[in-house]
C-alpha cells in the first residue's frame, strides 16, 4: 500500500461512527475486539497475509467502538441553586478576562471539571477589575443553565461548551464587585502562557493605538483573540472564501515554525536542536493562541513531520495526515464530528489525493527540471519531458547569449525565474481550485457558502497573510515600528484584494442538498482520486460525473421541504422574539419577522445574528433558497433584528410592513430592502386579498392609526390566514388597547391557531379577544428562562380556561402546525411531546 496508515484510520473512525449509530455495550465490544485480535495473531502466525489484514482492521473497528464508549460524558455537575437565582460564586480564574466596552467576561472554575462563564456589566466609564489567570475570586451573579435553540439541526452549543467543562453562564448586576481572595490556583506553567498572551495583546494595542480595525484583525490573526472583531470587517473574506487566512489555523503554525527553523539554521544551530526548538515553538504558540483545536492539530502534525524528517523517512502526506488524525480521535473521538476537525483534515487529504496527482501530471516534472539548469549530468535522471524541457531552455539561453553577449548561466537564471513564478502561481491556483471542489460539500452543509472568486483571491491573500504572521510576531517581540508598519500595510492590501473580489462574488447561499446528491458527489470524488493515482482510463468520465453533481450542489434545483396543497405555520425557536414561517398551498413561502436580540442602554451589540445564525440554518436545512415575502410586523429589534441577513440570504420579492415610526432600526431596514431591490409594501386593516391559494385579511393597524416617534407594540401588523375549514391569527406584539379595538370593530372570529401576542405578556391576550377567537391551539414564541418572565401566569390561566392547547417554543422548541383544509397536524421539535 502507498499509504498503509490510511486503512487503520478508516477502521477506527468507522468504529466510532458505528458506535454513535447503534447501541453497543462494553462487554460485547470487548469480546468482538478480543476475538478479531486473536484471529489476527493466529493468521499472522500461520502466514495468512490477507486474513491478517482483514481481521486486524475489524479489531481496530471494534477498538473504535470501545474508544467512543469510553469517552461518553457522564452526568453533568450540579449546582445547589435554581436557574436564574442570584448566588455567590467562588473559584479560580482559568481564562483571563475579555473586555468589551461595557462588559467583561471571564471563566471561573468552581471545582475541577465544573466551569462557568461570568459576565460583568460595567457602568459607563467604569474600568474592569484586573483579573488574571490563577486568581481566586468571589462574585455575586445570577446563574443560568445552558440551552440550545430548539430547531431541527441547530448548532449544539450546550455540548460545545460542555466539552470545555463549561456548564453554566452567570451575569453579575451592574456595579457588582469582584473580590480577590488570598492565595493562587491553577498551574504556574499556564500562568506563564497566559501572561505571554496578555503581553502580546498589550503590545499590539500599543503598536497600533487608535486603530481599532488593525488591532482587532491582528489580535485574531496572530493570537486568536476574536472578541473585538466586527463581523462587517471580515465579511469580504467570508464571501471570497479567504476567511481561513484570518483565523488561527495550521497554516499559521507551519509558517511560524518554518520561519523559526530558518532563523535557527541561519544562526548555525545544529539540525536536531533546531527541529526540537521549532516543534516546541509550535506547541507554545498553540497554547498562547488559545489552545484551539486547529492549532493543536497543526502543532501535532508539524511535530510528526519533523520527526519523520529527522529519521530520513519518506514524507508521505496522507500517511502523515493519518497518524495525526488517528492520534486525535483516539484522544477525543468527539472531534471527528466537529466541523473544524473535518475541514482541517479533508483539506489536506484533498491536496494529497487530488491536487498532488494533478500537479505531478502537469507542472511537477517541469518545475523539478528547472533545478540546476546548467548541470548536464542531471538530464539522464529526469523524466523524458523534463529533460527535453531543460535542453530547450539551454538552447534558448544560448541563442539569446549570441545577441546580448551575457554568460549563458546568467541568462538561464533570468529565464528560469519567471517560469518558476508562473509554476508557483499555477500550483496555488490548482490547490485553491481543488480545495474548493473537494470541500464543496462540507462547506455547503456547514456554512452554506461556496466561493467562486476564492480561486483567484486565495492566490494573492494566502501569500500575503503568510508574511503577516512572521513579520507580525517580529513586531510583537521587538516593538519596532518598521515591522509593525509592514504588517499593517500587508493586512490592508489583503483587505483591499478581498473587497475587490467580493464585488464580483454572487450573493448566493446554498441550502442543504438531498442526501443522494451528497453521497453521489463523495463517491464521484473518490473515483476521481483513485483513477488519478492509478492513471485509469475512466478518470475523465469520473471527473465529468463529479462535475455534474457539483453543479447540482451549486444550482440546487430541488424543491424545498414543504407540502403542496397544505398551509403550514411554523414558529421557529429564536429565543425571546418572533419568526414564523408560512408555507402556502401553492408552494409560496412567507417569513413573518426574523427574530433578533434587543440592546438596551449602552450595552454592546450582540455578536449572535439571529437571522444569520438561527433562522437561516433552519430554512436551509429544509432546502429553502428563496422566500417570496418577508413580513416585518413592527420595528422592535426582537422582530426585525434578523431581517437584514434574511434579505441577503433569501432575496424576497416584497417586504410587508404595518405602521412604522422613523426609528433608526426601521430606517436601516428600509434602506437595506431598497438597496437589495425588495419592494416595501405597507398594509393596513383595509386590505384583504388572496395569496398562495390562501385568504389573507389584514386586521391591524387601522387605516387611521398614526405611529409615534418610537416603535410601539401596537404598531404591529396583524392578519388572519384562512384555508379550507381552518384559520390562523397572527398578532405580532399588539397590546390590550388594539385587541379591544379589534373586538369592538367585530374583526375577530373563531380561529384554530392563535399566535399569542407579545410572547404571552400580561399586556396582551385580553379575555374578550380570547372569547372571540377561542383558539384550539395557542403558540407562544418566547425565550428560555427569559428576563421578562414571559409568558405571564395570567395569560396561561386565561388560555387554560378556554381549553386551548398551549405550545411554547421555550419548552418545546420549534412548533409546526399544518392544515390540509380539513385536518390539522401539530408537531414540535421536542419529539417526546409530539402531538
Which SSEs are present, and which pair or pack?
Elements: H1 6-21, H2 26-46, H3 49-70, E1 86-99, E2 103-111, E3 114-121, E4 135-145, H4 157-162, E5 166-172, E6 178-184, H5 188-207, H6 212-223, H7 231-239, H8 250-266, H9 271-288, H10 293-310, H11 317-331, H12 339-361, H13 364-369, H14 384-404, H15 408-438, H16 440-446, H17 454-478, H18 481-502, H19 515-534, H20 539-555, E7 567-571, E8 580-583, E9 589-592, H21 610-621, E10 629-632, H22 637-640, H23 643-650, E11 654-657, H24 664-675, E12 679-682, E13 688-691, E14 694-700, E15 718-723, E16 726-730, H25 736-744, E17 753-755, H26 767-773, E18 777-780, H27 793-801, E19 805-808, H28 809-812, E20 815-819, E21 824-828
Helix pairs in contact: 1-3, 1-11, 2-3, 5-6, 8-9, 8-10, 8-17, 9-10, 10-11, 11-12, 12-15, 12-19, 14-15, 15-17, 17-18, 19-20, 21-23
Structural account:
The protein is α/β, with parallel strands linked by helices and 835 residues long. Helices cover 49% and strands 15% of the residues. The chain has 28 helices and 21 strands. The strands form 3 sheets. It has an 8-stranded mixed β-sheet with strand order 12-11-10-9-8-7-20-21, covered by helices on one side. A 7-stranded mixed β-sheet has the order 13-14-15-16-17-18-19. Strands 1-2-3-5-4 form a 5-stranded mixed beta barrel. Strand 13 and strand 14 form a beta hairpin. Helix 1 packs across helix 3 and helix 19 runs antiparallel to helix 20. The radius of gyration is 31 Å and the shape is globular. The model has no long low-confidence stretch (mean pLDDT 88).
Amino acid at each position: 500500500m502507498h499509504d498503509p496508515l490510511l486503512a487503520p484510520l478508516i477502521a477506527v473512525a468507522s468504529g466510532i461512527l458505528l458506535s454513535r449509530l447503534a447501541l453497543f455495550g462494553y462487554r460485547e465490544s470487548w469480546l468482538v475486539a478480543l476475538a478479531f485480535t486473536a484471529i489476527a495473531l493466529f493468521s499472522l502466525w500461520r502466514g495468512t497475509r490477507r486474513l491478517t489484514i482483514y481481521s486486524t482492521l475489524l479489531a481496530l473497528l471494534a477498538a473504535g467502538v470501545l474508544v467512543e464508549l469510553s469517552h461518553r460524558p457522564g452526568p453533568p455537575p450540579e449546582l445547589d441553586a435554581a436557574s436564574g437565582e442570584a448566588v455567590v460564586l467562588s473559584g479560580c480564574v482559568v481564562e483571563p478576562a475579555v473586555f468589551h466596552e461595557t462588559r467583561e467576561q471571564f471563566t471561573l472554575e468552581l471545582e475541577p471539571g465544573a466551569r462557568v462563564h461570568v459576565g460583568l456589566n460595567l457602568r459607563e466609564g467604569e474600568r474592569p477589575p484586573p483579573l488574571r489567570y490563577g486568581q481566586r475570586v468571589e462574585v455575586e451573579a445570577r446563574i443560568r443553565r445552558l440551552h440550545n435553540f430548539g430547531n431541527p439541526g441547530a448548532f449544539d452549543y450546550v455540548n460545545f461548551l460542555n466539552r470545555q467543562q463549561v456548564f453554566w453562564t452567570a451575569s453579575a448586576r451592574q456595579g457588582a464587585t469582584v473580590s480577590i481572595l488570598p492565595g493562587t490556583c491553577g498551574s504556574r506553567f499556564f500562568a506563564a502562557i497566559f501572561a505571554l498572551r496578555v503581553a502580546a495583546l498589550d503590545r499590539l494595542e500599543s503598536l497600533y493605538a487608535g486603530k481599532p480595525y488593525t488591532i482587532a484583525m491582528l489580535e485574531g490573526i496572530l493570537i486568536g483573540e476574536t472578541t473585538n472583531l466586527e463581523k462587517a470587517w471580515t465579511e469580504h473574506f467570508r464571501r471570497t472564501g479567504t476567511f481561513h487566512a484570518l483565523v488561527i489555523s495550521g497554516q499559521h503554525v507551519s509558517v511560524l515554525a518554518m520561519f523559526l527553523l530558518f532563523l535557527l539554521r541561519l544562526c548555525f544551530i545544529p539540525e536536531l536542536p533546531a527541529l526540537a526548538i521549532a516543534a516546541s515553538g509550535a506547541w507554545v504558540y498553540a497554547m498562547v493562541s488559545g489552545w484551539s483545536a486547529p492549532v493543536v492539530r497543526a502543532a501535532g502534525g508539524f511535530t510528526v513531520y519533523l520527526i519523520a524528517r529527522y529519521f530520513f523517512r519518506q514524507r508521505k502526506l496522507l500517511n502523515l495526515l493519518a497518524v495525526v488524525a488517528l492520534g486525535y480521535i483516539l484522544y477525543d473521538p468527539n472531534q471527528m464530528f466537529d466541523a473544524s476537525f473535518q475541514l482541517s483534515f479533508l483539506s489536506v487529504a484533498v491536496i494529497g489525493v487530488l491536487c498532488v496527482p494533478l500537479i505531478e501530471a502537469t507542472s511537477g516534472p517541469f518545475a523539478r527540471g528547472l533545478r540546476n539548469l546548467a548541470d548536464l549530468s542531471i538530464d539522464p535522471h529526469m523524466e523524458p519531458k523534463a529533460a527535453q524541457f531543460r535542453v530547450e531552455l539551454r538552447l534558448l539561453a544560448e541563442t539569446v547569449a549570441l545577441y546580448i553577449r551575457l554568460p549563458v548561466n546568467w541568462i538561464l537564471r533570468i529565464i528560469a525565474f519567471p517560469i518558476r513564478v508562473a509554476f508557483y502561481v499555477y500550483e496555488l491556483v490548482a490547490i485553491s481550485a481543488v480545495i474548493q471542489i473537494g470541500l464543496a460539500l462540507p462547506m455547503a452543509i456547514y456554512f452554506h457558502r461556496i466561493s467562486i472568486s476564492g480561486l483567484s483571491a486565495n492566490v494573492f491573500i494566502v501569500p500575503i497573510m503568510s508574511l503577516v504572521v512572521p513579520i507580525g510576531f517580529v513586531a510583537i517581540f521587538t516593538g519596532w515600528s518598521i515591522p509593525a508598519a509592514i504588517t499593517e500595510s500587508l493586512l490592508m492590501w489583503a483587505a483591499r484584494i478581498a473587497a475587490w473580489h467580493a464585488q464580483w462574488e454572487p450573493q448566493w447561499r446554498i441550502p442543504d442538498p438531498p442526501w443522494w446528491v451528497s453521497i453521489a458527489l463523495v463517491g464521484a470524488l473518490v473515483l476521481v482520486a483513485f483513477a488519478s493515482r492509478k492513471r485509469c482510463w475512466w478518470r475523465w468520465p469520473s471527473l465529468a460525473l463529479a462535475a455534474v453533481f457539483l453543479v447540482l450542489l451549486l444550482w440546487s434545483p430541488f424543491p424545498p421541504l414543504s407540502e403542496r396543497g397544505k398551509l403550514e405555520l411554523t414558529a421557529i425557536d429564536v429565543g425571546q422574539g418572533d419568526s414564523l414561517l408560512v408555507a402556502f398551498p401553492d408552494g409560496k413561502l412567507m417569513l413573518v419577522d426574523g427574530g433578533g436580540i434587543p440592546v438596551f442602554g449602552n450595552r454592546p451589540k450582540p455578536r449572535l445574528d439571529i437571522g444569520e445564525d438561527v433562522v437561516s440554518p433552519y430554512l436551509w436545512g429544509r432546502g429553502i433558497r428563496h422566500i417570496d415575502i418577508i413580513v416585518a410586523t413592527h420595528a422592535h429589534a426582537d422582530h426585525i433584528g434578523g431581517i437584514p441577513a434574511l434579505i441577503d440570504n433569501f432575496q424576497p420579492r416584497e417586504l410587508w410592513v404595518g405602521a412604522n415610526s422613523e426609528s433608526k432600526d426601521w430606517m436601516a431596514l428600509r434602506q437595506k430592502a431598497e438597496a437589495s431591490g425588495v419592494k416595501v409594501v405597507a398594509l393596513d386593516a383595509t386590505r384583504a386579498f388572496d395569496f398562495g391559494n390562501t385568504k389573507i385579511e389584514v386586521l391591524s393597524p387601522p387605516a387611521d392609526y398614526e405611529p409615534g416617534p418610537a416603535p410601539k407594540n401596537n404598531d404591529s401588523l396583524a392578519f388572519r390566514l384562512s384555508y379550507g375549514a381552518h384559520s390562523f391569527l397572527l398578532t405580532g406584539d399588539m397590546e390590550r388597547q388594539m385587541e379591544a379595538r379589534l373586538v369592538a370593530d367585530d374583526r375577530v372570529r373563531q380561529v384554530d391557531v392563535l399566535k399569542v401576542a407579545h410572547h404571552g405578556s400580561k399586556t396582551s391576550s385580553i379575555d374578550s379577544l380570547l372569547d372571540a377567537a377561542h383558539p384550539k391551539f395557542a403558540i407562544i414564541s418566547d425565550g428560555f428562562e427569559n428576563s421578562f418572565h414571559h409568558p405571564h401566569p395570567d395569560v396561561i390561566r386565561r388560555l387554560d380556561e378556554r381549553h386551548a392547547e398551549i405550545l411554547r417554543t421555550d419548552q418545546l422548541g420549534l412548533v409546526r402546525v399544518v392544515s390540509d383544509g380539513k385536518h390539522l397536524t401539530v408537531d414540535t421539535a421536542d419529539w417526546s411531546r409530539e402531538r
